[in-house]
Amino acid sequence: MKKTLAAVIAALAMQAPPAHAITVVGTPSCGTWVAERAKNDWLNVKNIAWLVGYLTGMAVATDVDALKNTDNESLYLWMDNWCRGNPLKNVSEGGVELFKELAKRR
Fold first, then answer.
1. What span, in angstroms and rounded, lies between the C-alpha atoms of 49 and 27?
2. pTM for the complete prediction?
3. What angle do CA 3, 6, 10 make, to 5 degrees?
4. Packing angle between helix 45-62 and helix 72-85, nearest 10 degrees?
5. DSSP assignment letter at 20
């Protein structure tokens, strides 16, 4: 009986929607990020400002000062590399990974 119940619970859990599915508004795609960063002009300001705001929001929401002792240019370069390796994803997905990496360094 316990094995059957465990199997039913596992099956239901796999069908449940993700607990942390959140719509992120305004996130640029990695394709847009890479293309605009390659232009090296002021058009990319909105995307880099978006990234810094997103990371700051994550820090406030989690009460984790992951951005301490980090400069903006390092954040941009990290995202450049991540987006080149993940061209079909978006900057918010990369932002989550970047935040996790920064939080580990604390």
1. 11
2. 0.75
3. 140
4. 100
5. T
Residue written as tokens 């305004």? 26
pLDDT in tens, the chain (106 residues): 545 433 333 333 333 334 456 778 888 899 999 999 988 766 678 899 999 999 999 999 999 999 999 999 999 999 999 999 999 999 999 999 999 999 998 7
Tell me the C-alpha distance between 62 and 17, whole Å.
22
What CA–CA distances, in Å, run from 12 to 4, 7, 17, 59, 80? 12, 9, 10, 33, 39
Cα distance between residue 53 and residue 27, in whole Å: 11
Q: Which two tokens stand for residue 91?
A: 């900057």
